[in-house]
Amino acid sequence: MADPAARPATLLPPPLVYATGLAAGWFINRIVPLGFAASPLLNRLGWGLVSAGVLLTMWAALTIWRHRTTINPYKAVSTLVATGPFAFSRNPIYLGDWLVYAGVTLLLETYWTLALAPAVWWVMRYHVIAHEEAHLTARFGQAYRDYTSKVRRWI
Question: What's this model's pTM, rounded to 2 decimal places?
């Protein structure tokens, strides 16, 4: 077992987890259509969610870079970031990814991506975030535990 202080033991690339859920939902929908009616309102809402997710992710990435630490989930962090979007979510990048996922779900007009969302959440929570949290706890100890007592994992 790798030392969690050295780096997160994450094996799956987080964007790939979300992309797999979306691609699988799209593919299943091609075989077994389970869509909802397209509407201009849902289309605008979809693009709005995608835009909000991208903006949140960019804000979080800029905040990380300002603290001169890494955004790479396979490398050790050098600083505990608790400002910017990290002041209200411990995982603002993954929250941004969820907004994109929801927006693309609306744009694809299929319930399948929604049906796969719990599996995507489970993989992210237990195979990505759990490793990152173990790394942060090993690196920052009580400071990270204090942060987790003040800031929720999602929102």
Answer: 0.93
